[in-house]
């Protein structure tokens, strides 16, 4: 009940996020008076990750899994994120990683004591091989349903990058095709028992990109608290060499709308498909750990600045 109430409040908040700036939603205790979180069970696991991985590390390099907070877990590689959200009625996995990551992600889930066969949904950030390349293998291993945006669906089902993707001519390898079981719209809430995860369409880096938000709550053995999580897609203006964003005003508009959406999201924990894009390793070694005591507004500003820089560079050429 407790979890449900927070999840519902957060979902409502996010439904409005695209239109108007939000006031601070009602939330759990630590948001009013930010303070460093109590040493969580996962602290040692995070230190192990820091010991094994570098910033902007290799995509297929094995990493030890760790607890992000409560029922949210990092199960990806050193260079590519996969997040497991666990619940009594099954689990949700966001992103699978490069094809070689499939056995690593499965091993990480097992190392945390979870059964990968309890994963009911596999979600995506964006339809590039480094984030959804292991979807087919993980679907086969878990029996989970694949969840994607309408735009990403044909890419996942053919394994071929879309012709209108800025990286269409960047030499991406084809992926093993995988059937999409469920298409989500912008603002749609995916429910699994007490878990509720909200989809946000954030095109820009790719046409079908999605970001996700949810409340993560402490485990029964931990002090009771729920925090707002955001898994925000890459939103970096990366492209094939001959692609100019300035030649595609519709893409630039989509990009800016997505970044504006991200600016309005309020979160206490931020995870990005490439961990270092959201400064994950730097935060881990800081005073507050991954808890963003000043919120995640900085990330939207950073994205906006980088897009401006890219467009200015194109214009100057
Ligand atoms: Zn990408």
From TrEMBL:
InterPro entries in the cross-refs: Metallo-B-lactamas (IPR001279), NDM-1-like (IPR050855), RibonucZ/Hydroxyglut_hydro (IPR036866)
Gene3D superfamilies xrefs: Ribonuclease Z/Hydroxyacylglutathione hydrolase-like
Residue ranges of the TM segments: none
Source organism, top-level taxon: Bacteria
Domain (Metallo-beta-lactamase): residue spans on this chain: 79-274
Signal peptide start and end residues: 1-19
UniProt keyword annotations, A-Z: Signal
Protein name: Subclass B3 metallo-beta-lactamase
């Amino acid at each position: 009940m407790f979890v449900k109430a927070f999840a519902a409040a957060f979902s409502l908040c996010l439904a409005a996020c695209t239109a108007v700036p939000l006031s601070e939603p009602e939330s759990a205790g630590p948001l009013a008076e930010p303070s460093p979180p109590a040493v969580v069970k996962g602290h040692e696991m995070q230190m192990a990750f820091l010991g094994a991985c570098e910033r902007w590390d290799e995509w297929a390099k094995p990493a030890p899994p760790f607890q992000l907070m409560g029922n949210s877990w990092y199960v990806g590689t050193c260079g590519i994120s996969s997040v497991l959200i666990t619940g009594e009625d099954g689990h949700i996995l966001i992103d699978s990683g490069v094809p070689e990551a499939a056995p690593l992600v499965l091993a990480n889930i097992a190392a945390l004591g979870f059964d990968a066969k309890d994963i009911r949904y596999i979600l995506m950030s964006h339809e590039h091989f480094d984030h959804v390349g292991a979807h087919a293998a993980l679907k086969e291993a878990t029996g989970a349903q694949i969840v994607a945006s309408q735009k990403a669906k044909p890419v996942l089902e053919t394994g071929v990058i879309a012709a209108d993707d800025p990286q269409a001519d960047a030499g991406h390898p084809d992926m093993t095709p995988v059937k999409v079981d469920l298409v989500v719209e912008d603002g749609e809430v995916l429910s699994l028992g007490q878990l509720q995860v909200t989809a946000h369409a954030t095109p820009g880096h790719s046409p079908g990109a999605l970001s996700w938000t949810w409340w993560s709550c402490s485990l029964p053995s931990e002090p009771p608290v729920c925090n707002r999580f955001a898994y925000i897609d890459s939103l970096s203006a990366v492209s094939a060499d001959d692609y100019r964003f300035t030649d595609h005003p519709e893409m630039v508009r989509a990009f800016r709308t997505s970044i504006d959406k991200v600016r309005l999201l309020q979160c206490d924990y931020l995870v990005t498909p490439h961990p270092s894009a959201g400064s994950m390793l730097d935060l881990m070694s800081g005073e507050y750990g991954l808890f963003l005591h000043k919120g995640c507004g900085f990330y939207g500003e950073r994205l906006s600045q980088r897009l401006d820089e890219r467009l200015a560079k194109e214009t100057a050429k």
